[in-house]
Amino acid sequence: MDKITGFIEAHIAPVANGLAKNRYIKAIQNTFMTLIPFFTIGSFALIIIEPPVDYTTLDPGPLQAFFQGWAGVAEVLAAPLGAINTFTMGIMGLWAAIGLSYFLSRHYKMSSFLPTFLGAACWLVTSGVDVEGSFVTDHFDSTGLFAAILVTILAIELYRFLTSRRVGAIEIAGAAVPPAITDAFASLVPCAIVLVCAGALSQAVIVATGVTLPEVMTVIMAPVVSLAGTPVGIFLLGLIVMLFWWFGIHDSVITSPLDVISYANLDANMTAHMAGVASTQLPHVLTPPFWWTFMAIGGSGATFALALLCLVSRSKQIRTVGRLGIVPAFFNINEPIIFGLPLMYNPTMFIPFLLVMPINGLLTYGAMALGIIGKTYAYAGWNMFAPIGALLSNMEVASLIFCLALIVIDVLLYLPFFKVYEKQKLDEEAQSGTTE
Fold it and tell me: Per-residue confidence at 370, pLDDT binned at 50, 70, 90?
């Protein structure tokens, strides 16, 4: 174990920490974290206007009356809530382009908002036209995400290169000239160069491939997307995240780049659901609610079960950690458990901390593959209590029950290792005279 720890600390941890500080990964992370309210609101709008049960198939009674009333409300609110869904989840690509441009330009301490507009404009140039040059919105949704990342990074980096070297800067002298005017003229030529390059890139891709840049990016990323959605991919992703966490490396190293895939999958599932596809037949398994609701119950490591065990521990120290950590654990916040128990660098708890979350992923994948529960198409947010989030993710009571069953399984998986660790702490407390 010491050799493995030493190898990871020497060779893997520095790379992972470097990735965690990478400006592009941080921009992606900040963008999707900022957009969570949009995704949540858009999901709830869909839930309201899409009743999970057709009341005409039910026998007369209170349940039929409830869903008939729901259908009536959905009919009245279909237009406004449908618009909310369209302009939150439905144009995810546009919001991502704006967010990525903003956070990357802020990283470079650009005071003007112009780079944000410029990055978004370049994405529109490459993703808002078809092969004939006509304006289209086909890739305003999640299909434009990969193009948004590539184009905004290139646009902001080129703009920074040009402006830092004062390329084509038009100087306007005079104390009476407002700074906004001075900055606008200084940026005129660099903006023109960046936009022309974006147009040239778009046209070059169309001439070379016969399709637009977002379509090319989708094809290039297809193997990665497919692998991430397999049982092996899900297990390995969960395993890597928890291995990094055990060494104190935040899960954003993996989950931030993964957001691009998982949110695109969620949007595709939502679109398919609105088209009438059954939840068991939706195209994707790996989505944000799959990860945060079924895999990471209570936070990375699925530590809600561990918080419950801590709460009833015979060890005073562990029980105190449980009391501090149980309420945050309801909202997928587990730092009190991870740092208070602690879990990091804890050899006794290494195996369950590493494996419980990936096992949750495999069990959930299997349940969805077998049609026991449906795949997810709505996202209540990463900090929604997992069983409720499971219910809202596809409006199936079976999902809520399955999530509760996962918590029980997690308790059983953690329990033998927890009992060993508890005995260690009890011995320490007995020696120090702090037992109750």
Answer: very high
Question: Computed from CA positions of residues 62, 64, 65, 69, in that sequence, does the dihedral angle turn out positive or negative?
Answer: positive
* DSSP assignment letter at 135: B
Give pLDDT tens digits for 295-354. Answer: 999 988 999 999 999 999 999 999 999 999 999 999 888 888 988 888 888 888 999 999
The CA distance from 224 to 261, in Å, is: 9
Q: What pLDDT was estimated at residue 160? A: 94
Distance between CA 307 and CA 26 in Å, rounded? 30
pTM of this prediction?
0.84
Q: Which amino acid is at 172?
A: I
Q: Dig out the tokens for 61 from the structure.
A: 């009674």
pLDDT number for residue 3: 64
CB burial class (10 A; 0-12, 13-18, 19+) of residue 117? middle
Average pLDDT of the residues in 66-83: 91
DSSP string, 217-265: HHHHHHHHHHHHTSHHHHHHHHHHHHHHHHTT--THHHHHHHHHHHHHH
How far is CA 235 from its chain centroid? 17
Task: Provide the CB-side half-sphere exposure for 36 (13 A, CA).
Answer: 15
340 CB-side CA count, 13 A:
23
Q: What is the pLDDT of residues 287-300, one digit of tens each?
A: 999 999 999 999 88
213-228 vs 179-209: helix axis angle to the nearest 10?
80
Contact between residue 374 and residue 274 where contact means Cβ atoms under 8 Å apart: no
Nearest to residue 224, comparing CAs of 196, 193, 249, 261?
A: 261
Phi/psi for 258 (5° steps) reads: -65, -25
